[in-house]
Amino acid sequence: MAKVTVRYWAAAKAAAGVAEEPYEADTLAEALDAVRGRHPGELTRVLLRCSFLVDGDPVGTRGHETVRLADGGTVEVLPPFAGG
């Protein structure tokens, strides 16, 4: 399993109660499952509206189960931002 850091921004950070935390997962889907397990409730709802960056690259519409994570990598959780 890859050891990754999940970083939360804006509403995701507020719902998680932390700015970042470590997880072990091989895919983005596994990491997000672990996040939902650790933070049931509001963060689970916020994740439905989020986009994700893995090591700085946008995930876009790719299936989360197809996005491999690298050891030491970073997953950025980005809720929609208001304003412009």
UniProtKB/TrEMBL annotation:
InterPro entries listed in its UniProt record: Beta-grasp_dom_sf (IPR012675), Mopterin_synth/thiamin_S_b (IPR016155), ThiS/MoaD-like (IPR003749)
One matching Pfam family: ThiS
Name this polypeptide is given: MoaD/ThiS family protein
